[in-house]
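Input chain follows. Return structure tokens only.
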Amino acid sequence: MCRHLGYLGPERTLHSLIYEGEHSLEHQAYAPRMTQGNLLNADGYGAGWYQDGAAVRFRRSQPIWTDQSFREIAGAVRASCAVAAIRSATVGFPVDESCAQPFREGPWLFSHNGKVEGFAGVEAKLRELAGDLAGVPDARAPLDSAPLFALAVRNWRGGASLGEGLAAVVGTVTGLTGGRYNLLASDGTALAATTWGDSLFVREDADAIRIASEPLDDRPGWRPVPDRSLVTAGPGSGVRIDPL
């Protein structure tokens, strides 16, 4: 089980989003409370945010807790919308920076927490459905999350909203095979996420929204998202949870 988080609200440092809290994303990388067969998320990490309206990304293939340089950099970067992820690689896929998420295309950042069951048998079909995305390098990354990202980009380019695009991906892939499909995305102004087989929590404060695989701290206010749900969040509209 990989883990991810999304943030939308007043500008804060990446350090506060990723490293602060009794159960921060960094802490979850080596001491998670909710597991799906693994205790370590040591196979890479990434963070994406927005600068001057453009999506910016930093990724590495090493465990996040070993990267002291990023810890320092994160204290100097401020963001009002961000997506971060830590990775536990599925057997058969490489531990490589190209596989670390979030993936990026245009204004969109995307993370997949889960696994496509029987990927070898459905990869060609998924890529066929996504169409030609030769100009999107992350859509060709060597892991099962890549064609899901490609499908999402196709949906968004076709006019789907952030949440509609993710919901359509889940509908497509679950029509072909089983698996776990907790997806998370942002476009710089909103967040969307799905639950399908893994845990997800939301926290809505007066001026900020957080979506995370598990609560980042022990403060009250974290709400579990029911399985097979779509979460959408935006400024002024708050958090909405609908069944998939």
